[in-house]
Amino acid sequence: MRAQNVVQSEYRAQNCRSASACTSTADGGREQVPLAPASAPAAGTPSAALLQAFHPATLKAISRGDFVVDPKLLSLDSLASKCALCKQSLIRPNANGCELDFRKGQELKGFAVSDPSSRVKGQRKEQPVCLECVKNLIGPVSTTSTAATVVRRGWVGPAEVWFERTAVAEPWRQVKVLLGEDVVALQAKGEEARLAIGGRRASTAAEAALNRGRKVGEAARKPLAASPPCASSTDARDAEGRLTIAAQAAKFLAGIKAGQCVFYSIGEEDSTSSVYLATTWDHNAARPKPLGRPSKARALLETVYWDTSGAASCTCDRGRLFFGAPCVHKLALQALEGPRQASHISLQRGARVVEAPCSKPGERVFGVYWNAASPSPHRTMVHFGASEQFPWYCEGRQSGCSKTTDCSHILEAKRALQRPDGIHRVSGCLFSEAQLERALVSVYRGEGDVQVEAGEAAARGAHERCAAGAQGPAGDQGSPSVDASAELEAYLLELVIGGHHEATCKGEICFCKQHPRLFGGIDLGGEACASRCCSSASASGKRARSEQVDGGEAGGARGGVKRRSKAFWAARERDAAEPMVADGARSCKDSEVEGCSGVGVGRRGEVMVPVCTSCACPSRPCTHGASGRVAVVLPMEAEAVQVEIPKLVRPVDSWDVHDPEVTLLRQPVKVSELVARDFAELSTMECLSAPCPRAPPRCKTKWIRLWQSAHIYSLQWSQEVKVRIFCCTCPEKHTVHFNGEALGLFAWTRAVIVTQASCQLLLRSIQESGSASNGFISACAEARRQYKPSAVLLSEETWRKASLGFFRLCGRSILECCSICGLHPKVLLCDGLAGLACADGGRQKGGLSGTSAAAVRPFTAPSQDSAGVNVEKTMEAGVNFCAASLEGRGMKRRLVIQPELRTLLARFSGHHPRDPELGKSLAPIEYQELLVALERADVEAVSDFVPDPDDADADPVLLHWRRRILMEQTGQIRSKNQSMFELLDGIEREALRENPRWPPLCPGKWSELLYGLGAPLSVSDDSNLIQHGRALAVVRKLLLGGAATGEDKATLAEHAPVLRRLLDHYGDVFPDFFMPALHHLYRLTLFGRGACGLGVDRAGWALSAIEGLDHCVSLARDFRTQGVPPNAEQREVFRFWEARANDLLAGVESLTPPAPQQYPLSPAELRLLNGRLGLETDGSEAEALPPDHPFCKEQRELGCYPLPGWEQKRPLPQYRPFEDELGRSVDRREEHRCRSGLTVGEFDAEIAAKSSVKSAKRLRQHTKGGFVFCCPHRVIYGWHVMLRGESPRDPFTVLYTRLTDETFRRS
Question: Where is the SWIM-type domain positioned along the sequence (predicted)?
């Protein structure tokens, strides 16, 4: 409460400042004017004329000061009724008197009146200017209890007082002299700002008079001398008329120039690391969002900056859509500044709490540094609203901040308010008009590049790369980029903006080509049939659309429409008299049936029959052209008879499927616009027919054609139609049913057909509300009854069944990945979900229930062959993998291997001071012993500390004992400890120079690295410090004496961020005392990533390659210690080993086989390398295993990974001697924190033993939950059931058996 009072008092003090005013002249200068005329009347009781002219309620509000207007200037005879700038009505006449009128939701209710003695040409009355226009065109308007002030943009002087009053509840008095020429200048400025952000030019008085009085619907007459419209950077649109990203960026820059958008600098002063707070931009509506508490209309500011990779970064939703996603803020930043590469040091500097000006009274907006331990400059926005029920609001609620109590950001803002200099206030435009003009030209010509790496398209699996705003062709100085922006919009159209673009026909495979009768292709040269259904729309003329929609028939003949023939009406009367006429399928001749392919069986066991797709007219014999289509044969009374997967599984699929016109209709309409009258016309022309079967039925009888009555139902209408089906003559009634997929229909039964749009509407209602659709269906039915009592309605039960059948049909096709990430995301998230059956909150075992769960092999069990034998793979340290602990042979993946030394190292770093174990600072004896142990040659000696039993506060007691280590490991451990000693020695010298205390405090720049090298063995792997082959190449360059370039720093920022943050403190190279430790980190990362044991009967390719780097590092160390420059012979030796290292190590870092002239690999070594990469012995990609393969049994029964590219490609082996026959770890220390070590039955039995016998039976029937994979956009890529506790083997099983090395290289 105290902090809230501080905010309110400070706000009042800030807004109560008043000083002399300045006004802008028409030519942009400023002149001092008096605050009020010498004869300005004092505010008092309104005049008699005012009492007679205005409504009593309005007079009362003016007298109380509810409206910021001067009652002395309200003269209806000489005052205009509309604002001179925005043209909104301010004075509205009424029967009981005039009233003051303002827009709904307008915050500043008031207006200023121009001086009557300063009218200019064209001003016959005094011009009112509303305070909203003053805020938009001049500057923020602040209102206190006694004054209304305006702070001009770009003016460093005091605020200007426009209105004042003596006390609260008194009328206002205008002290600002608003000249007529000032109003003209504001009008020109407002028109310029409106044109800059994409508005239309206002009509002049001559143009308005030219078009005045014309008839309704008459085209406006153009002026005689109409100038051609000028191309503008803010008007660039795509083929569908939407503003492109570049055009929106130009609009944003124009908004900065007009004062509607802001770009506040909050970074370190005089630094290359630029950090800004920018106005939130609505990319869907192409407009800015005003500053305020987040809602549909308002938003807080976004953080925009150059990151350490040299790329523009933004915190808005569009900018975080995917890696390198373009947004308005990034393009504006590129246009205003050249590309910069920030450093972590400068990004962490700057004001911790900043305040942005907010125009709404009683509101304040703060930007708080979101995490002091993070290198990101992101500011978390905090909003304070005095009029809100909960004054404080933090936008961090969306990412974990508390919603019930004050989070750390709100507390930091309150603490800053209590300090005199705790808040840095930002204001004003940082960029000159010349900079903004250059930025507009830059965006217009597309000079700022934003590389967009899009994922593989879901349907095609293709990799797309879009570039926004690429530079136009040389010599074109006046046109923006076309190709780049068009490609960008084509890809991002369905992702964010949600627009619809017209898809094109896919050719012969398109559905419109498979139904030539409906969508064209009929030979119009021949004679029309009896029912005239072969006549085209152009030949028949346009029909007059009937006004009826529900169930009626089209109106009679109209002018311009050909009359029906006698044959047509005779056929219609025959059909009406016999609605269920069955005759032989005369289109199927015996000679043709004999040559047709026979009836087959589908993959799901359904009976299939080949059908004809060239039946142009049911009144003519079918010629049975070549066709590869088949139809499913079902019983006549079956449900869900339409089994074709819809082309529009989701509404967004309409962006890939074109919407052709049904040309058979007399007035062609698109498929998406078909309604009841259209289906009635198609039914009259006998177009609603099942495909003609080309082979006899399976029962060896004949097909007969059956016309029957059916209803097409929508949630808004229904229509009775006639549908043709084909049925056999046997008692089973095998039937080929009508398929309405091409017309957007779903056939539920032979008599009930529903529209797919209604099914999609029901699906969306369920997804949005989370409840059943019964209420929605009944509401639609009740509304139809109100408008048409005789409407034919479908029951709710049938609607539910039909919609569920359509959902199941759609589910077969919903196998698409994220449209942004593609089939293989760069970032793949996985997690285990336990307790799936505990949604009711009951205290019972979670998971999925199953009576045979205890007897099923888990998903992570090793694969078995047809004989039931596990696939085995023997693992040996130093040959197949690099170990992490002291046990085993070969190279280790840790720099410091002894656990007691790692603990002391982590405590010395001080990186996590709140950690109960590793947060304690080192005592002097502990730090001294750490240095001694690292320098000691005897690595089997162990230095351990225990608490003093006599004094708990005293220094710990040192104990010595010995550990047995393999002889081949001692040299490796000794070398690594020595490099670590040199590192600590150099850090100690730096720390003592900054603070001469003992033991020294670890400098902050080294704390993160030392903590990573000293974290416990169970959670640490030092090879993770360098995460990619490209980062290994940069480290190799630094080890060989090179300096890091900007591209190298960007690579380290992406793949080795800890090393990049350390490099920022030293410039382009690391200090010399870090080189030995960096060399060991490079080696353990190189061999730990798959280069270990690549030699067969010799040292191998990797060891031969690393030899050159080892010699170079040793020579460079000798050069530093000898104190004299190397001679020519030494330099020649160094260059030889350097060239050898660069030639061979580049391939080892990426595990790419070397060229034969560099290092020929033997066939055994090549097979070994291919096996490491998951390839076949010949180096080809592994093919997907058949679904019925024995290796796929467990994963087929317990998992679901249906996406293309996620099929199982290889078996999961049993790694001996670490795992048992079910894949469980033999050594409990290996699978830490996540394993149970028990089967599902043993686990449940152990839990049940501690409870009742009744629960034992129930627990044995439950699994342990599910394990899911998804992308950052929360699109599920697959899942499997966990039969035992979650462990690292769950993600390993999926990644090893289903993904390829090429996938990991792209990720």
Answer: 302-338
Token pair in block for residue 829: 């998230």
974 phi-psi bin (left φ>0, alpha ψ -120 to 50, beta other): alpha
H/E element, 909: helix 899-909
CA distance 1083 to 891: 9
Instruction: Give the SS3 label for residue 353.
Output: strand
Terminal-residue alpha carbon distance, the chain = 50
Q: Per-residue pLDDT averaged across 529-542, rounded?
A: 44
Describe the strand order of the beta sheet including 173-174 as a list of residue ranges: 141-143, 147-150, 160-164, 173-174
Burial class (CB in 10 A: 0-12, 13-18, 19+), 267: buried
> What 3-state DSSP class applies to 367?
strand
| CA pair distance 76, 67, nearest whole angstrom | 17
Phi, psi (degrees; rounded to nearest 5) at 1094: -85, -5
pLDDT-wise least confident of 140-154, 235-249, 736-750: 235-249
Q: Phi, psi at residue 347, to the nearest 5°? A: -65, -30
**Helix 1128-1150, helix 1075-1086: angle, nearest 10:** 40
Closest CA to 1078 of 1063, 1065, 1064: 1063
**CA 744 to CA 684: how far, in whole Å?**
19
Burial class (CB in 10 A: 0-12, 13-18, 19+), 577: exposed
Distance of alpha carbon 1101 from alpha carbon 1162, whole angstroms: 10
Q: What distance in Å separates the CA atoms of residue 368 and residue 412, rounded to the nearest whole number?
A: 7
Of 228, 266, 630, 537, the residue nearest 425 (C-alpha): 266
Q: Are 1181 and 1171 in contact (CB under 8 A)?
A: no
Fill in the DSSP letter of residue 1231: S
Closest to 449 measured CA to CA, from 568, 567, 326: 326
Spatial separation of the C-alpha atoms in residues 1080 and 538, rounded to whole Å: 81
For every residue of 165-219, DSSP letters joined together read -SSTTS--EE---B-HHHHHHHHHHHHHHHHHTT-PPPPPHHHHHHTTTPPTTPP
Between CA 151 and CA 137 the distance in angstroms is 11
Please name the residue that has the structure tokens 């803020």: 329
Amino acid code (one letter) for 90: L
Cis peptide before 1217 (omega within 30 of 0): yes
Would you tell me how many other CB atoms lie within 10 Å of the CB of residue 531?
Answer: 21
The pLDDT tens digits of the residues spanning 1194-1210 come to 888 888 888 878 889 98
Q: Tell me the backbone φ, ψ of residue 66, rounded to 5 degrees.
A: -70, -30
Copy the structure tokens of residue 980. 């670590």
User: CA-CA distances (angstroms) from residue 370 to 342, 911, 1283?
Assistant: 18, 18, 41
Instruction: Looking at mean pLDDT, say which of 192-196, 335-339, 906-910 comes out highest.
Output: 906-910
